[in-house]
Predict the structure.
Amino acid sequence: MELGSKPLTSGSFPLGKAAKGYCGCIDRIAPCEDCPGLPAQEIERRLIELGFVEGAEVTILHEGLFGRDPIAVRLNGATVALRRREAMAILTR
Amino acid sequence: MADGTQQSLHRLALVGVPNCGKTALFNALTGSRQKVGNYAGVTVERKVGTLRTPLGRNLEVVDLPGTYSLRARSPDEEVTRDMVLGQRAHESPPDLLLAVADATNMRSALRLVLELKRTGRPMVLVLNMFDIAQHRGIEIDIPALEAGLGIPVIPATAVRKAGMQALWEKLDALAAEGLPQATENNWTPPGALELRAAQRQADRLINAAVRPPAKPHTLTNRVDNVLLHPVAGLVILLTILFVMFQAVFTWATPLMDLISLGFDGLAALVGATLPAGLVQSFLQNGVIAGVGSVIVFLPQILILFLFILLLEDLGYMARAAFLMDRIMGGAGLHGRAFIPLLSSFACAIPGIMAARVIDNRRDRLTTMLVAPLMTCSARIPVYTLIISAFIPHRSVLGVLSLQGLVMFGLYVAGIVSALAVSLAVKMMFWRRAPSPPFMLELPDYKMPRLKSVAIGLYTRGRIFLKRAGTTIFMATVVIWVLATFPGPPPGATEPAITYSFAAMIGNLIHPLLAPLGFNWQISVALVPGMAAREVAVAGLGTVYAISGGGDAQIGHVLASQWSLATALALLAWYIFAPQCISTLAVIRREAGGAKWMWLTFGYMLALAYVAAFVTYQGAVLLGWG
């Protein structure tokens, strides 16, 4: 059994790159550490507060007109809107 | 009866995540017995009401700003944290927390409840919208939830009288028995690990106590397939906006005419009963004209807020922010700035106040800075006066009226300049700072409830009237004094205002305004026009000594006295000019400093000057001087 700190598996796919209709299971929340914007820690907490926790299933329902951004995802019975930039931190499989 | 180990119940606080129906519950508990103000020292809306239980106990209830966590990332959320922890100065801590959860979507709410439990405060969980959950076939095992959370859980439907029964009984029972003593506060700001653990615990509880329906609810999804469609969604949003403006400008007109008639009648009555003199002039030109010129906008503001409240209750506003995020983001604005900027078309004051929904300070300030550029309804009297006097009544391409096109152009100029200014602000001050995240829940669609919309409208209307009665009244009094004293010397032939302080100021600034094609009369009229834009119309009437004449008569005189270039320059001036003391006062309060007020005043004045200068000189070159 290899639980605990799981390394980034090659199968992890960032939600921010997924197309409309994509459905996946959240593997990890891994905000980019050096990206501009809020500290990675804060992005992680905000994502968890909206319900993005490991194991949850997400489906991309809608996307915006320009740059297909932002996206609206279905997450355990709720709909959440976020930009693709933040969705890059959500790794799914 | 309360004994030594128990506390009696006097004060409750409603806590919950955004969109859980907290406000509907607050309305159901208090009815219209609400007081809306601000928390001391911050511009966070403080909503307190009193409720009367069936057994006749009076309790005070506070509606705290919605939050996902007590971590507090905005001023609103700080208020919630401090109130829950009993750390807010000048506020007694609540005896009981009423945690509110949407029964159809409990995940984040239960995580918040687990966090709130660590504060040790007595708490009851209210499962709101219980009827919708039942209707959708969601089965909730309340005893299991109570056991898992260790607090009482009450199902409720805030929008139905019968749905509140259980909660009323519980409140009466708690008031009679007394509350358990608050235990030790173990709360510390949760990190990602704690939040994750709490969410897992909440999910386990939900798995054990809630059985989802066999057939999932899909209505919201199906509606969203149309309303959030990349193209159709934007078209529908624009259509809604179009209908909204039509309504604001056409439905309100009869009511506004009625209000002006009423104030005119009142002024005439004062004129007839009081002897001519200072008192009569003060009441007529100061109080009645000044306050009347503001109250006349009440119908427009109410109609605008009717739309905003309906769209908000329906769950559409979050979607509008979603659709507009990228478009507004291009200009350095947050998707949520859409609502404040929209409100600013009626009046910048509610617009600037609505900017509170933006939790990032930088985005909030940018929104407040550009909100006054949106064409507010106070500009309309000035625009209509000048357009009808100078722009020929002619049709373009057979169907469009030239006057209407000029009006439309002025609106577009306002929007474009707001976007340009926010882009410039971003480039100048915050070039390196990255834009904050846009993340929000899109709530399920719900039918708006008449009662909650009515309460919302009543509250907005009252706030507006209160402001008209205080700040704006004071401003009009000051301006009246400037325009009245010193009085004309005996045997004076010119209108009285030409001898007043206002005229002195006007003459002083006239050389500065001459390059814009403004004559001394306009310069003088701009002084009383500082109180509110539309007052300049009355100011022009006074300067040109048109007694008792309507706007049509003023327009007639103007058309014979001004060149087209002057008229166009004045229109350009009014797109930008910061001529509204109340807006500036609100910016100062909401932005938390006079610095922002002066910045707004300065940049708008500069833009107004440049725009009017370019317009006038250009028009003169075209031979319209």
